[in-house]
Amino acid sequence: MLKKALLFDFDLTLADSSQGIFQCVNYAMKQLGFQAYNYYIVKNVIGHPLPDTFKLLTGNGNAEKAKEFTTLFVEHADKVMNNNTFIFPEVFDVIPKMKERGFQLGIVSTKYRYRIAGILERDNLIEYFDLIIGGEDVKEHKPNPEGLFLAIQKLGVDKNEVFYIGDTLIDAETAQRAEVDFIGVLTGTTTMLDFQSQNVTNIIKDLNFLSAKIKGH
Predict the structure, then answer these.
(1) DSSP 3-state percent helix, strand, coil across the chain (nearest 5)
(2) What is the helix (H) or strand (E) element at residue 109, kind and residue range?
C-alpha cells in the first residue's frame, strides 16, 4: 500500500536537543539533591518520558520524586530548551520536499507540543506539519502507541499508509505495537546493530536518505 503520511519523533530525529535536555536534567537533579550526570549518560536516556528518565539515571523508583523532577525539568526547559535545540541541517531540505511529494507530515513525541511548535516556528518549519502530538496530548507515553493512533485518526489515514520515523528502540517498539511501518534513523545514540537486534530492517544514516526508502508520490 502506498504511504500517505510520515510521522516523526522529534528529539534526535528532527533536532539535536541534547544540550538543552542535559542542562534541564542536571538543574532538576541539583534542586533535588542528586549528583550531576555526564552529558553522554544523559544523551543515552533521551526519548524516555521524564519520570522514567529520573528512575533510569538515579535508580530511585519514588513516584513523588519523579514527579518533582519532571516539574523542575519543565520549569527550567521553559527558560533554556528552545535556545539549546538545533534542527538538523538536512531537515530544512527534506521536510519541504516530502511535503511537495504530497505526504501529510506529523510529529509524535514525548516532548511537549508547545515546545516543539515554538522551535519549528523559530526555524520557519511549522507550516509543513499537519499536526504535532506531544506528551501533554496522551495519557500513556511511548512505547504505548496512543500517540501514533491519535495522529493516524486525526490525519484520516489507515495505519498501513503511515511510516513512523525515529531514533530509538522505544520508537521502534511504538511502531510495532501500532502495527505501523518503521524507519530507524541513526542520528541518536541507537546503533545499526541495536536496531537490527530488534528486527528493524528499515534503517537510514540520517533523513537525507529518507526519500530512497519511500515509494509512491
Answers:
(1) 50, 15, 35
(2) none
Structural domains in the chain plus CATH codes: 5-16+85-213 (3.40.50.1000), 18-83 (1.10.150.240)
- The Cα–Cα gap between 2 and 38 comes to 44
The whole-angstrom separation of Cα 15 and Cα 9 is 9
Cβ neighbourhood burial of 43 (10 Å; 0-12, 13-18, 19+):
buried
Which residue, 178, 146, 176, is CA-closest to 201?
A: 176
**What pLDDT is recorded for position 184?**
98
Q: Which residues of the chain have pLDDT under 50?
A: none
Question: Per the structure block, which three cell numbers stand in for 78?
Answer: 521553559
Confidence (pTM): 0.94
Phi, psi of 11 (to 5 degrees): -65, 125
Geometric angle at alpha carbon 120, from 52 and 162, rounded to 5°: 70
Beta bridge partners of 181: 163
